[in-house]
Amino acid sequence: MKVSSPVLGGIPLTTLLFVALCISAPKAGGSSSGALLELVDLAGERISRLEASGIAYFAGRLIVVDDTLNSLFVFDRQGKLSYRIESGRFPTDRAKFEDLAFDETTGIFFAVGSHEGFNSEFLERTSVFLRFRLVDRDGVLAVDEESVTQLPLFKSFGLLGLWKPEGMKIEGLAYDPLGDNLYVGLRQPSDKARVYRFVPGDLNEEGPEWEPPLPEKVVSFDAGRIGETPFCISALLWVPEQQGLLIATSTEDETTHEFLGNRLWFYSPERGVMLLKDTFDRGMKAEGLAIGDNRLLITYDNDQDDTEIPSYLRLLPLEPLLDSL
Fold first, then answer.
1. Going by C-beta distance under 8 Å and a sequence separation of 6 or more, which residues neighbour residue 132?
2. What percent of the chain has pLDDT over 90?
3. CA distance linking residue 274 with residue 57, whole number of Å
4. Cα dist from 183 to 62, 72, 102, 325, whole Å
């Protein structure tokens, strides 16, 4: 259960903090920090409820998942909503989709629920991992219903003793098509930033003799803290040219639910863990990563229902970020 943010003059402190920070925040236009765009509807107006928890770049469009609705949202490259995609094969109960991964070589998408819960019922509801394709029907994207498959990722984390009430939370997902590796990042436990690897085909539950694959730990590191608040994984992205992972970590104060800042990391077996961008965009929570038009796209899920802060999109020039690698 979330605790309400403190208020000043009837306005939540999280909102006041965000407004103060955004007075000097870069907007659309050239900047080393890139453009910052609010995700809006077709008319350019604020969307009343959107928590942009994951993003993929597909055919010049932004595909966004929301952790309050089991839908896909299609935005243009200026952050305007084009339409919403529904599927009869997606779960009917709220799955809390936290990230999205896309395989450009096959057109396959993966979407992952948070795999969290304070009790068994909520835990089962959010333990969703979907594989599907999108098809273009006269210029409008739709889910290929026959392609939708649910894979039992939760059974693998059960082997580690993590899949239980208050045991874990997934917020990062990435896919490496060359190695056929699926990467899963855990926000909780929060003592370390942990990433695990799977071969997607091993998750196909086939026949009574099938056994879930044991998650392979790829990296575990201390992402730092602001005061007592840890930086925790909130998004992953595979970078083929660098053969490594971008890892976004974010902070959220447990008491006030203020977002204290984000960090961006790179990991590969050869280079280890490297900090690419230190604490940035205070007052927002980075939760989605994608690459498009030679820019790094970051979506911010700012828990709009609780903070009144809408979802934003940051467009960062890609080359300066990767020059240090």
1. 87, 89, 108, 109, 111, 143, 144, 147, 148, 149
2. 80
3. 25
4. 21, 21, 12, 21
Phi then psi for 319, rounded to 5 degrees?
A: -60, -45
Amino acid identity, residue 287? Answer: E
Identity of the residue numbered 259: F
Q: How far apart are CA 60 and CA 94, in angstroms?
A: 28
Sign of CA dihedral 73, 74, 77, 81: negative
Please name every residue paired with 315 in a beta bridge, in sequence order, or none if there are none. 35, 297
Please say whether the dihedral angle defined by the alpha carbons of residues 313, 261, 184 and 105, taken in this order, is positive or negative: positive
H-helix or E-strand spanning residue 18: helix 13-22
pLDDT band at 305 (very low <50, low <70, confident <90, very high): confident
Per-residue exposure over 89-102, b if at least 16 CB sit within 10 Å of its own CB, e if not? ebeeebbbbbbbbb
CA 97, CA 171: separation in Å to the nearest integer?
8
Q: Give the DSSP per-residue string, 233-266.
A: EEEEEEEGGGTEEEEEEE---TTT-----EEEEE
- CA pair distance 135, 247, nearest whole angstrom: 29
Cis peptide before 189 (omega within 30 of 0): yes
Which residue has 């828990």 as its token pair?
303
How confident is the model over 251-289, as pLDDT tens digits? 999 888 899 999 999 999 999 999 999 999 999 999 999
The CATH number of the structural domain formed by 7-322 is 2.120.10
Global pTM reads: 0.90
Distances (CA, A) of 185 to 171, 218, 234, 280: 6, 10, 8, 20
In this structure, are residues 97 and 112 in contact, taking their beta carbons and an 8 Å threshold?
yes
